[in-house]
Amino acid sequence: MSRTVQLGQYIPTHSIIHALDPRVKLLCSIMYAACAFSIHTGGQLVFHALALIAVIHLSRITKGELLRCITPLFGIVALVAITNILLMQHGTCLWSWGIFTITQEGLQNAGIFSARLVYALIVGNMLLMCTTQMQLADALDSLLSPLARLGFPAHEIAMVFSLMLRFIPVLASDARAISEAQRLRSAHVTHTTLRMRLTLLMPLVIALLSCSYRHAQGLGRALDARCYRAHAKRNPWHPLVLTCRDYVAVGIFIAILAGSCALGIAGI
């Protein structure tokens, strides 16, 4: 039986990717996303696609679970593609109507920019699906701890980051429940005009803001009940320790970045 997977949800499996140190996964994900936005050749697209397929296979996360996570974000990818197609005016003209012109270079740029965004979204979702919110908070707290000596609120930033990731699937579930409640009340969004859809979205946004405020109040009361203090000294239950597999993963990641840079320099 397939599992119901939501955006930002952690999927517990026994895999090599899950067992890696969260600091390694966080830094590698950020650097990979930055490297993905520098892709400009077809060889780099294929190379990064193969690297992502290997990571997905090692994480033991099924393709269906990953697609269910990133499907709600495809609207952003489509918007980026359409924007690039319409704004790129120079090059070989393929179709023109009034102020709208579609060129061959515009289609190529739209494909490259869309692929970049898809790669970055997949990496971000893989990070959330293979790492718990507590592990991410501990990793961010550990990485920012040197700045705490200079007065930077490292622990507070890590706490806010952890709570933000924790409430992504919660708010997604609330939005889905509110949307289903609208459909039960005969608010057929899919069979109306664009103006009616925007009108029906206003109650959804207001209800979602109300749910967010209620969750924030409950979280504040829970922290007060546990006498939480941001500046209190704490000892981690599971200390973060780098192992041999973490160093091997970093080495493989550096090799991937080097291969991508080599393909970009060669223009392949």
TrEMBL record:
Its main location: membrane. Keywords: Cell membrane, Membrane, Transmembrane, Transmembrane helix. InterPro entries: ABC/ECF_trnsptr_transmembrane, ECF_transporter_component. The chain crosses the membrane at residues 30-54, 66-88, 117-137, 157-177, 198-216, 247-266. Signal peptide: none annotated. It comes from the Bacteria. It is found in: Membrane. It is a multi-pass membrane protein. This is Cobalt transport protein. It comes from Fannyhessea vaginae PB189-T1-4.
